[in-house]
Amino acid sequence: MDAAEKKTALRMIPYGLYVLTAESGDELGAATVNWVTQASFEPPLVVVGVKTDSGVYAVLQKSRAFALNVLGKGQQGLAFTFFKPAQRDGDAISGEKFRRGATGSPILASTPAFVDCRVVEIVARGDHAVVVGEVVDAGVARQPEGRADDATLWLKDLGEKTFYGG
Amino acid sequence: MDAAEKKTALRMIPYGLYVLTAESGDELGAATVNWVTQASFEPPLVVVGVKTDSGVYAVLQKSRAFALNVLGKGQQGLAFTFFKPAQRDGDAISGEKFRRGATGSPILASTPAFVDCRVVEIVARGDHAVVVGEVVDAGVARQPEGRADDATLWLKDLGEKTFYGG
Asked: Nearest-CA neighbor of A23 among A67, A64, A77, A59?
């Protein structure tokens, strides 16, 4: 396999950006992720590729729950904030206010939509784990005008040369 | 959970379009899919949400292999072709020429890139199965200019109101 062709072919997959959050006891994890797809309508399932040495992965394995906070167009700053390790301060994570969703996972106040999931399966076979979640709650704070996916911050919105995994 | 909010939140996930192919003995499956994400760098893993009552799902369970043929900008016609059941005619599927990749999976001649995968795990918990594949070969027929993901046909390119799952 040609490494350059593999890289280019995989970079042809387009992505949105999300802040993945989880909480267990007094441990809280939050990280920007892009490897996300829906994977079933009924029950509604989503899949997230989560770095196995990340804080949020350690937390969601305990909580067996997570939320995906969908970043909106213009929220590049928030994406970069959660590339760094999350810091909790009262009812804020890295300066972003949150509440707890149906599963107890943190729902950010400033993002346009979220899905709140319980973990139904984890396939850990690489540097990122395939985390399968069943959507148990979802919310839209700002109804998108036009296509819903156009309201989402895309990986390509971070800059011409920015690619990211997990 | 509010069904309309769930639908909108999940539709905020942007997608590309791919023709998923598999072959086992004299059975061949091919279908347009969009629920795709990378899920690990090392080993390189991808995840596809595959309709459990589809022909291609029956085939890839036997072959334990599949290819994702990445559709390029302008290939809307090909996306619609593979929404319909695939028909084989010699070295063509539904009119599209193919060759066999490293895993034996059909690689379409007219798409700009492919990843060829062996199935490493299937999580079947809904109307679509989470199929985890390890990339064993990949190829790029036409090197993208600019960002690789801009060269891909996006779900939104099929029309303002077109959404699709699997």
From this structure: A59
Which of B1, B8, B12, B128 should one mutate to test binding to chain A, selecting the residue with the greatest count of A CBs within 10 A? Answer: B12
pTM, 2 dp: 0.96
Q: How far is A65 from chain B (nearest CA, A)?
A: 16
Facing A114 at nearest CB: one of B9, B14, B46: B9
Minimal Cβ distance to A35: which of B38, B129, B151:
B38
User: Would you write out chain A's pLDDT as a tens digit for each of its 166 residues?
Assistant: 999 999 999 999 999 999 999 999 999 999 999 999 999 999 999 999 999 999 999 999 999 999 999 999 999 999 999 999 899 988 899 999 999 999 999 999 999 999 999 999 999 999 999 999 999 999 999 889 899 999 999 999 998 778 777 6
Give the C-alpha separation, B10 to A24, whole Å: 25
- To the nearest whole Å, the CA of A74 is away from the closest chain B CA by 15
